[in-house]
Amino acid sequence: MKPIIYSVEDDLNIQNVIRIALQNTQFEIVCFDNAKEMFIQVEKTIPDLFLLDIMLPDMDGIEIIKKIKKQQILNKIPIMIISAKASEVDKVIGLDTGADDYLIKPFGVLELVSRVKALLRRNNTSTDEEDSINIKGLTINKKEYSAVYDNKTIRFTNKQFKLLEYLMTKPDRLISRDEILNNVWGYDFFGETRTLDVHIKELRRKLKIVGINKEVIETIRGIGYKFVL
Q1: What is the arrangement of strands in the sheet containing 28-32, beginning at the earlier edge strand?
Q2: Which end of the chain has fewer surrounding CB within 10 Å, N or C?
Q3: Domain residue spans in the chain?
């Protein structure tokens, strides 16, 4: 059965590019130019992936993500933002709200297809195993995509959680940027490596909020990162 992808994009030219690219890759793609119609269709059929523009006529992409994440039946479905808003702040807002990936317009068709495949593959291989990792009081729960420190719960986006999980499975070990990108984003990752820096920055910020003031994710300049809690 073909994966079903819902795209919300009000620019008809871009919408057609997305439709043709994904249809040619044997995906079932349904396009909408507003959020209202998309949510009506969700009531009938739940997709395997959402592609969302940010600037839309009725409800912007960030609000759509918030609405998706509030619904238990939808909140584990991967989301990719496709937007012309390219600042680091825009990316952080999108990813922190719950998007799993952020693609900047204009984009290449091959990059779009590659990222879509990576998101679908990771979602299909994920499990519901209730498992946890604990390092010096910081505990992550793989089932809930959350972390607890000093009785304070930290909520992460899917990608932030996967990044923290990968770092915590290799404590006190230098991990190269390429290794992280390959294992967290996928071997066919085809985008800006700054994406990793943005996620690291957000992990540090969220860990600091709950009282982990030590720089637990060390930057090894020009090489990668090390988790040293």
Answers
A1: 28-32, 4-8, 49-52, 79-83, 101-104
A2: N
A3: 4-125, 132-227
Residues 51-95 have pLDDT tens digits of 999 999 889 999 999 999 988 788 889 999 999 999 999 999 999
Rounded to the nearest 10°, the torsion over CA 163, 194, 79, 227 is: 10
pTM metric for this prediction: 0.62
Query: Are the C-beta atoms of 170 and 227 separated by less than 8 Å?
Result: yes
User: Which residue(s) pair with 80 in the sheet?
Assistant: 51, 101
- Cβ atoms of 103 and 191 closer than 8 Å: yes
CATH architecture, domain defined by 132-227: Orthogonal Bundle (1.10)
Structural fold of domain 4-125: Rossmann fold (3.40.50)
d(Cα 41, Cα 81) in Å, to the nearest integer?
A: 19
Closest CA to 79 of 21, 44, 35: 35
* DSSP per-residue codes, 16-75: HHHHHHHHTTT-EEEEESSHHHHHHHHTT---SEEEE-SS-SSS-HHHHHHHHHT-TTTT
SS3 per residue for 171-223: CCCCEEHHHHHHHHHCCCCCCCCHHHHHHHHHHHHHHHHCCCCCCCEEEECCC
Using one digit for the tens of pLDDT, what is the confidence trace for 159-196? 898 899 999 988 888 999 888 988 887 755 555 668 89
Query: Rounded to an integer, what distance in angstroms lies between the CA atom of residue 156 and that of residue 162?
Result: 9
Let me know: does 80 contact 51? Beta carbons within 8 Å. Answer: yes
